[in-house]
Amino acid sequence: MEDTIFALSSGAPPAAIGVIRISGPEAGDALAALAGDLPPARSPRVRTLRDCAGEPLDVALVLWFPGPATATGEDLAEIHCHGGRAVVAAIAAALGRLEGLREAEAGEFTRRAFSNGRIDLAEAEGLADLLAAETDLQRKGALLSAGGALSRQIESWREQILGLAASVEAVIDFADEEDVAGLPASFEGKIGDLAVEMRRIAGQPAAERLRDGIRVVLAGPPNAGKSSLFNALLADDAAIVTAEAGTTRDVLERPIAIGGVPFVLVDTAGIREEGTGMIEEIGIARARRAVDQGQIVLWLGEPGQAPAGSIQVNSKSDLESCPGAEGLKVSAVTGAGVGELLEHLVALGKEALPPVDQVGFNRRQTEWAVAAAEHLEAVDVAGDLLVIAENLRSARRALDRLVGRDSTEEMLDALFGRFCIGK
Ligand SMILES: Nc1nc2c(ncn2[C@@H]2O[C@H](COP(=O)(O)OP(=O)(O)OP(=O)(O)O)[C@@H](O)[C@H]2O)c(=O)[nH]1
Ligand SMILES: [K+]
Ligand SMILES: [Mg+2]
Q: Strands 56-65, 45-50: parallel, antiparallel or unpaired by DSSP?
């Protein structure tokens, strides 16, 4: 029998209210032990909670949800207590003393919901992203997956493939008879349309881009003003700025939402042919790596030395000596051009993000969608019917993997480890 688990599911105390959830076969008994009785199902009741010695712990709102039609698919109880540190700790201690109860691990409630078929893997992944969402775009994108829109899309594809497979089976079954009807005329078109639709969604930027933010790397020679611009864009004194060439050595990263778009600004060491020592050499190597990993690179140096695909920025535009012909003119000192640069970043950022008003895939899901499309594209309508049937089966299996039917323990550990305790 599964353990019964409990955890504080609301934010860290102290808070106005603390919500403690209990899930598993002993949830009802545990609630009754503290509250004196089991309240009627699905109706909130106010109860004085007491420990095993009868000492009052708190007056709380309690809820009883008998399984399996619950969030976790198990018997589930909720205690809405006062959110003080000592209150929450005392109730948790009282629960921990009950037979068969233990504290939940990170993501364990959600993992049970998945194991019990209450949500599929795509919904769980969406939920993890929703909880981590810090910007409005991230919230909107995650809400679609968490709400099951992605799962419904996959289910519709599975059904279409099942329909196509049924028409292949029908032709196979009657293959011995006289005037054999072939595959329906629409068969090839339907398969093609399905593969195109899968490729279209799989071709969008991956959901991780939205979750992790777009990396904007500031690069250029020493003293170009990278750290000054980094600070100006962040409106914060995050990086050290001095007149000494080679000030920045480490790669410095700061997440920032601009116009609702999630970015990670990256400041780097000045790149020159030879650094003045080992520390700077390492810094330069790191800077080059950061440039390779950036989705947007702002180049504050000679246009001739700019990394491929970078955006030319003319820093220190307030100075007379500033050459200024090419690129965006900015001055970290006067602030001139910083607003325009931010606007430009937002416009580029929006293009680099997946659309949040329609279903999108993360990298793992993209792999399976592409695999499914490949199996459909491999169908030769003039070829062997048994081979076609196998192609369709393989496509369907790939979609099963996408929503987590037969997923590995390792993968589930990685996913549910992303959740906090109490979720
Ligand atoms: N006038 C003027 N000076 C600037 C501007 N931006 C930076 N500086 C000055 O240029 C010098 C170097 O600035 P940093 O921001 O440290 O340059 P960096 O590219 O980060 O330098 P390293 O980290 O050493 O590679 C400092 O003295 C800054 O005050 C600017 O827009 N206008
Ligand atoms: K400097
Ligand atoms: Mg610097």
A: antiparallel
